[in-house]
Amino acid sequence: MRVLGIEGTAWCASAALYDAEADSVLIESDPYEPDSGGIHPREAAEHMSEAIPGVVDAVLTAAEDEHGPDAIDAVAFSKGPGLGPCLRTVGTAARSLAGALDVPLVGVNHMVAHLEIGRHQSGFENPVCLNASGANAHLLGYHDGRYRVLGETMDAGVGNAIDKFTRHVGWDHPGGPKVEAAARRYAEEHSGDLLDLPYVVKGMDFSFSGISSAANDAYDDGVPVEKICFSLQEHVFAMLTEVSERALSLTGADEIVLGGGVAQNDRLREMLASMCAERGARFHAPEPRFLRDNAGMIAVLGAKMARAGDTVPIPESAIDPNFRPDQVPVTWRSGESVARGRGPGSDADGTDADRRGAEATVEFVSEADGAGGRRVIKRRVPKTYRHPELDRTLRRDRTVAEARLTSEARRAGVPTPLVHDADVQRATLTLQHVGDRDLAAVDEGTVHARSVGRHLARLHAAGIVHGDPTTRNARVGVRAAPQESAAATEDDRTALIDFGLAYHTGHVEDHAMDLHVFEGSVRATATDPEPLIEAFEAGYAAVGDEGVLDRLRDVEGRGRYR
Ligand SMILES: C[C@@H](O)[C@H](NC(=O)OP(=O)(O)OC[C@H]1O[C@@H](n2cnc3c(N)ncnc32)[C@H](O)[C@@H]1O)C(=O)O
Ligand SMILES: Nc1ncnc2c1ncn2[C@@H]1O[C@H](COP(=O)(O)OP(=O)(O)OP(=O)(O)O)[C@@H](O)[C@H]1O
Ligand SMILES: [Fe+2]
């Protein structure tokens, strides 16, 4: 099968020929380069109208010269997400070409194409996928016929966050490669001294708006631009690597593929490769021509979809500027799930064997402490992928936060482990052992999910957010609560752990994010997530503020393709 792909979601007018038998890809691209500032949608669309015919013609001529007039079996195009005016131009070109050649048309999701090219090349079966592109940043995992969004940016895409700073400094678009070059110069010429910038992760979600503004302010205050570029990269890429590691830990997957234009950055690839090497996970990043926007990835996924019969009649081939990756029915893969690694005895099964979380190693010890209770020793081990200064700060701050807020949460009526000892220097906590297993390892978890809802509502009423309430950070058992109260209630069967990302806040938005993080983890790990989510929300509503649930709907509905 040979597929002609067309891409033009924002800046890159591109056409490609994918020959499935030879597994070869020919790509012709014509980029739009704005004279000043960022991408102007109208200019970008004009560029598409001018450039698409040329790149399509080049690819079609090459195909027909080699294979004759019936060279093409299907036409695939980027249906979204992207800039509406650009998508419409490309859609029109694709429809007329499919009509003229009399072949089927395939409508491809651009973000799913960014990740499928890595899966195709690596041969990995069930990777977690990190898409680091201009307008987006998200982690995806396959589960039951869809790519679930395990985590994503709550505001700007990662490339856009970097480009926002370079625009402020007056550099031309795209800014990413210039930031990379400046950061490399700084690392070579200086000791790699780091500027402290906001570092914001919430479970597997993250935010870049604070860091872009802080970088702009630092520039206005006279901090050398190379130092800001270096520090921007160190913070932003460490955030992406941390959430990727958390996704591996949560799902039990042991493979990662990377996609998107920002993935051309050597430092990002280096951090991910080093994190994976430390965990014993496999890592793949395609070569640069398949990372930045290109029609090659559209043609490759188009061929898989066409082979699965997933073509679209021309009247139904409308573009969708807000097309999310989790809306795509994945017709070209079978039913396996990214969370397959959670059978008994595996690291993610949540029963009691020493384990490695995303941040820490956890050792289970039987302590002769009079009460005969078991303990866990949690060590936040240094992460060699991140800058030593950033690593020290994060490990110290999180150890302190965990010790303090685990205890405060218990005083607010939420079952949490007793903190026996905190060694801040070594970033090590000794905690009471709670529960028999993680909620993620339980098949019938609705009772526990309801309790997690009530627990979070109590926490929020006390002005605390958990920051990482996942199904691996809820421990369940006949009696998971530490207190020996006479009558154990239903809520005593579920305890919350891992308060390293917890903080004090009364903001509805922060409370809603806690709910969003929990629901994301349920969708990532549960076979049938909906009953758990319903029970969780009912539990929250019974104790907490309905306004937070309204805000949750708002968080979920926000279009993030800006
Ligand atoms: C929807 C679609 O139009 C959009 N496409 C897109 O964002 O183009 P892409 O080629 O994936 O990524 C471009 C971004 O990639 C950044 N970039 C390119 N080279 C870079 C480098 N060496 N380091 C950091 N960023 C880099 C650019 O600054 C720019 O922000 C998307 O995939 O989100
Ligand atoms: N007090 C405890 N009692 C029983 N089990 C625990 C306790 N603390 C941790 N564990 C177990 O160890 C695992 C990892 O611990 P924890 O979540 O605190 O580490 P982490 O590295 O921060 O993990 P992640 O960031 O992946 O959630 C938990 O999922 C749980 O199975
Ligand atoms: Fe892209």
CATH class of the largest domain: Alpha Beta
Count, helices: 15
Q: What's the overall average pLDDT, rounded?
A: 92
CATH homologous superfamily of the largest domain?
ATPase, nucleotide binding domain
Main β-sheet: number of strands, strand sense, barrel status?
Answer: 5 strands, mixed
Q: What is the end-to-end distance?
A: 36 Å
* Radius of gyration from the alpha-carbon trace, in angstroms: 25 Å
**Helicity range:** 40-55%
- Amount of beta strand: 15-25%
Secondary-structure-based class equals alpha+beta
Number of strands: 22
Q: Give the cofactors and ligands.
A: threonylcarbamoyladenylate, adenosine-5'-triphosphate, fe (ii) ion
Low-pLDDT regions: none
Shape designation: globular
**The CATH architecture of the largest domain:** 2-Layer Sandwich
The side-by-side strand order for the widest beta sheet comes to 3-2-1-4-5
* Tally of discrete structural domains: 3
Q: How is the CATH topology of the largest domain named?
A: Nucleotidyltransferase, domain 5
